[in-house]
Every structure is written in structure tokens, then in C-alpha cells.
Amino acid sequence: MQYMILIYEPEDAYAGEAGQAALGEIVARHMALAEDLRAKGWMKDGSGLQESSTATTVVTRGGQQTLHDGPFAETREHLGGYYLIEVDNLDDALSVARRVPVMDGGKVEVRPLAVYD
Amino acid sequence: MDRFGAAIADARPRVVAALAARLRDLDTAEDAFADASAAALVAWPNQPPRDPAAWLWRAALRRAIDARRRAAVRDRAVLDAPEPGPTPEEALLAAEIPIPDDRLRLIFVCCHPALAPDSRAALTLKVVCGLSTERLARAFFTAEPAMLQRITRAKRKIAAAGVPFEVPGREAWPERLDAVLTTLEIAYAQAYEDAALAAEGAIFATEVLRLSGLLAELMPEEPEVLGLAALVRFAEARRPARLDDGGAMLPPPEQDAGQWNRRLIAEGAALLGRAARLAASGPRQILATIHATHCARAETGATDWATIAALYDILRELRPHAATEVNRAVAIGEAAGAEAGLAALDAVRGVEGWLPYQAARAALSARAGRRAEARAAYDAALALGPALAERLYLEARRRELG
Fold first, then answer.
1. ipTM
2. pLDDT above 60: residue B196
3. Taking CB atoms and an 8 Å limit, are A89 and B168 in contact across chains?
4. Domains of chain A by range and CATH?
5. CB–CB contacts below 8 A, A to B
6. Of residues B99, B113, B135, the one with CA closest to residue B10
7. What ranges do the domains of chain B cover?
8. A102 Cα to chain B: minimum distance (Å)
């Protein structure tokens, strides 16, 4: 099954000097995780995203489309990156999610892709 | 329940588990078992089966395979496409192998931590024990449509999110086994909650007794599994004595120990003894030991409150919880005097709206001769809307204070 692993973190998690130092370590752990997933044949895709201030949202309502500056949801945590993996089952996907490096308060959501058969 | 009904209930966990493991779908497994059970009730009076579980397993598997075959034929895109070939299930049916034991796998699936704790408890009792949605709704104090939705959603998540039908690897056991045991504790709390629900609660508790016993049989080397099975037995042993003649609840120290079920107490003691030999303590074993100490009054004639207080000291380290603190204060009150108990209770914070806290405060205050405080606490407890048996008990104590 394919699973999307969505990484949510407070946007200010990497602010300041301490944040930047932490970022270096987190990125190194992402690279190690991605390497391991590739070796296992589990990795389909994955990337970090630019900060949420770069987001543009297209809203469709009443037949009209409008553009909004910023992400769609007003939350403290923002979608910061994702992995797309192919594994046997939820337990394997959760084992990957547990290894995704995040700052304190980070959340990692595991969602199976829809199956069209 | 007649003897055929009892045989079907006994066979259920093993047969449904084996079906679910092969069909990879809880609904299909449950439907097939229900069909096979209905057929059994027609066939068995004339021709009793040698092995009811094996009969049900084969009948249910055949029904499930037929249903899948019909669906496959119906869904064939091209009319003259060949008939679907034999499936692995059909090979299994032809091979006459005995029922595989997949009960542990089924329990781990139903108690997967990816499901909400309440859903796990409801799902386990539904799928493994075969309780009806209607009965579960009553036990969980919820409407039947809401209960049905909770179970349906949990099953859907298991299927759609790819929860594996496997016993997890040993490295995952601390978390996964804890989820299973917590599920059983939630299920049992529903059965134990209201002493006045005598009939309903007793039937429900029977299922938790069965389930905890099954788990102890399947995981005989896990001390907390044995501890939980023991705990449920000690607590159920006292059920016959939990109400007085007027329908009021009686706390353990006031119960007639002569009415306690000696067989269940002995079973609990044996389980706890086995757990102790595995030499790895845990909160369920400590709780079971507390219950065992209460039950020992049936033999010794007195409750060893100092031991119970000491056990709560250990439990509060292992499992910090307001309930542990309140029960500890009650034990200290019995062991070291009401004032000492009140002092321990004063240290518990944020529980003013919790019935057992107010009930404990009222009883300790009354014993300490603080009548005004006792009356106030009984009034506070009664204002929290206790269930009938608890209300009758609290009202009687309140009246004694004048």
C-alpha cells in the first residue's frame, strides 16, 4: 500500500540561531531516513516544502475562483514536507512516521492513498 | 442459553479469528459466522456435530467463498471471460486442515493503537465476543446508531488504512500489549461502573472474564496479562454482594464476604501466583493484589488496610491518577485514622467534581467527627447525579448524620 507521510511543525521551530543549528541536524536525519527508505525499496517520493508564506491558495466558491496569499488553514503547525512510501501495511508506515525527525510539538500524519480498482 | 447457543458462543473467537485472517475483512468474517450459526441451529438438533467449532469454521468458510465467487462473477467485465479460478481459500477448504488459532491476531487487530480507545473496546467486544451493537450501546451509555457508527468507522479504518492482521513483533509489544490490556480495562470498567445494573452488567462482565481468561491462555508468559485476568476475577467474585437488600451499593468492607464467589477468588489467586513467578511487576498486578487483599477478608475476617495503603503507594508511582490518590487516602484513613486519610485527600487536586472523591471525603469526615464537613461532602456527592445504587447508599449515610 502507498502512504503519504505529512510532516507538520510550528513554523517558528527553526527560527533563531538555535533553530538553525537544530535544522542542520534535522536535515541530516531526513537524509539518513530517505537513504534507508530507498535501500528498503519503500521510498516513492518525498521533499521538504518552502515556508508557508510562499503558499498561494485557490479557493472555489459559488462558481468563482479567488486567490489567497498563504496556506488554507490558520494553524500554528504548517505542512513542512512529506514522504510518499510504499510498504506492506500500516505498522510499517507508522514505523517510518516514528522515525521522521521533527522539532518538539511536531506532528506526523500517516494517510493511505486512495485505491482505485 | 441452550447448549447449542453456548457451543456457538464458545466457538466464536476461534472461528471468527480464523475467518478474518483468511478473508482479511472483519465484516465478511462476522457475516459468514452469523450465517453458519443460523445453519447450525437448524442442523444440529437432528445431527449434533462432533466438533462444533470445526463444523462452524467449514460452514462459514464455504459461505464466505460462495459469496465472494458470486461477487466476482457478477463483477466480471466481459461476459464470456472465464470463471474465476480456485482461490487460496478454496484450496484450504479442500485440504481439510484443522481450524488455525488466530485469536491473538484478531485481538491485536481490534486493539490496534491506531484506533481510539473507546472504539477498540467496543470493536473487541463486538467482533471477538459477538455482543450486539444494541447491548454495547447500553453498556457504553450511548445511542445505538452512535455505537453502530463507532464500530463501522473502526472496521473501515482497519480495512482502508491497512492495519495488518498480524501479531506484532516482540519489539512492539510494550506498546501494543498495553493497548490490548487498556482495551480490556475500559471494557471491564463499563461492566463494573454501575452496581445496580446487576443483570446487564453481569452478562457484560462474563464476556470480559472470558476475554481476559482467553488472553491469559494465549499469553501465559506475560505477567500483566495474568494480572488483569486475576483483577477481573477478584472484582467479579464480589459482585453477588455489591448491593444490599434495598438495592443500595455496598463498598467492599461492608459486603457480606460469605456471598463472595470462592471459585473466582481461587482462580484469581492462581493467576496472580503465576504472574508473581514471572517476576516483573506492573500496575495491573498491583491492582489485582489490592483486590486480593480485600478478598482475603473472606478467610481472615479482617481487612489488612496497612497492606492496601502500601500497595497504593506503589501504584501511584507506576500509574499516577486521581483515582489512585483517592483510594490511597481511603486506605490510609482505615489504616492510620480518619484525620490521616483526610490529610492525604487534601493533597489531591482538581477532583471536586468527581463522585468518588466527594464520597471519600464525606465518609472520612464523618469518621473524624467533622459532621458539618461530612454533610457538605455528601450533598456535593449527591449533587453530581450518582447512579441509583450509589445514590441510595450516599443518602443513607447522609441521613445518619442528621
1. 0.85
2. no
3. no
4. 2-112 (3.30.70.1060)
5. 25
6. B99
7. 1-101, 321-400
8. 20
